[in-house]
UniProtKB/TrEMBL annotation:
<feature type="transmembrane region" description="Helical">
    <location>
        <begin position="257"/>
        <end position="278"/>
    </location>
</feature>
<keyword id="KW-0812">Transmembrane</keyword>
<feature type="transmembrane region" description="Helical">
    <location>
        <begin position="413"/>
        <end position="435"/>
    </location>
</feature>
<feature type="transmembrane region" description="Helical">
    <location>
        <begin position="357"/>
        <end position="376"/>
    </location>
</feature>
<keyword id="KW-1133">Transmembrane helix</keyword>
<dbReference type="InterPro" id="IPR051533">
    <property type="entry name" value="WaaL-like"/>
</dbReference>
<protein>
    <submittedName>
        <fullName>MFS family permease</fullName>
    </submittedName>
</protein>
<feature type="transmembrane region" description="Helical">
    <location>
        <begin position="383"/>
        <end position="407"/>
    </location>
</feature>
<feature type="transmembrane region" description="Helical">
    <location>
        <begin position="145"/>
        <end position="162"/>
    </location>
</feature>
<feature type="transmembrane region" description="Helical">
    <location>
        <begin position="230"/>
        <end position="250"/>
    </location>
</feature>
<feature type="transmembrane region" description="Helical">
    <location>
        <begin position="30"/>
        <end position="49"/>
    </location>
</feature>
<keyword id="KW-0472">Membrane</keyword>
<feature type="transmembrane region" description="Helical">
    <location>
        <begin position="99"/>
        <end position="124"/>
    </location>
</feature>
Amino acid sequence: MKYVVFFLMLCVGVPLLANRAVIDAKVRGLLAGGIFLFALLVKQGKVNFVSMETYRGPDRGFEVCTCDLIALALCIVLHKKYPERIVKFPPGSWLLLALYIIATISVAGAEFKLVSFFSLFKWARAYGIYWITYNMLRMPWPRRNIWLGMVIAGWTLFLWALKDKYIGHVYRVAACFDHSNTVPLFINQFLPVLAMWGLTDKKLSNAQSVLSTIGCLGLCVASQSSFSRLGMLLSVSGFFGSLLIANIFCRTKRVRGVTVFAVTGVIVGGLLALPSIMERIRTAPEESELARKEFNIAAKKMAEDHPFGVGVNNFSHALTKQARYSQFITVMEDEDEAGVCHHIYNLTAAELGKPGLYVFVVILVYFGGNALIGFWKNRHNMVGWLCMSVFIGECALHVSGFAEWVFRITPVTYMYAIMAGLAMGLKDGGGYDLIPQKKKPVKKLKALEVQELQAVEEAPCAV
């Protein structure tokens, strides 16, 4: 049944929505906000072709989700309404293409080629999300719908976490994701941006600013409910980082008042959650850390043996089937299917080789560096502050990469593509309507000038 619904949405819903959005700015705004919300709800709104859910790698089928359909609708709108403004190859496209080519080359040496094509298919879709986000910011439609999409996504995740924790009595909340570790990695990318936007956008009412800030506090609660130790720390750090930047560069009564409210909320919430957090740290299984070390050893061995890696999305298969790698695994040796290396950089080197790792790191530095450039160019207005908040979120994600591979999960990958597109678009002038425009002073006319102007207006037209 879900496949029937999907094809109806693809063949009927997307064209109708796109055609309506061409003539209605409100619909365009809803689509812009919707891409944030449905990046969160990938699991709930996807169909999976050639599904292999028993495979332990990041990608387990040719999946297509609601976020892809919204991106497709936005693409149609861009080409129909603003074709002359489209940038065919947004900044960073050639670096992303280089990584994609290396991943394609890695398939040649992969034993399980089908699962590699799962990842290649997803990476192409993720680039589409980046392309749409960047070009969307070049078009004249409401930017604040992006803020609204983030607010709804934040509150959705917050309420979902509360439901799982207090109604479902789940110890480590996963909310709308497959695993609890995904929760903070998704949150930490947009939490600083949501906080900064709510604090510094003067066109938002005080009620909207408070709504945004409470959503940020709710995201901190959701992150804490996942009991991901590093993730919890980075969530609070990212939130405080945005508060600090806002208080340095945008000293207003709202910023000061909301900051006091937010800091008080974090302190009170932290004290209430402290016993359970300390218990989580005290009882964390030693086997988990040992298993991570064993996976890292196997990943480094794969990178040494294969110049272009064992193949994208093939780490789990190689670890399961090849004895020279599985010999390092003792903690989880009884599992029929081996897991994935909990270190995104070692995992990338294992699957794409050293060339893939180098290009991957260059991409991260490129987008992070451009976010900083966007901040410096616009450090006296909201556009620059948003770029800095994107940079803070990216740093949190990259630090998490030393302990997690969740970057490769679709919702996290999509959110990174969206945030990269947001920062690049803002840096390149896409935030013009977020900057208050100074009104030009009206020249006061002298009495003689008024008389001369009236004389000209009353004079008969010359033929």
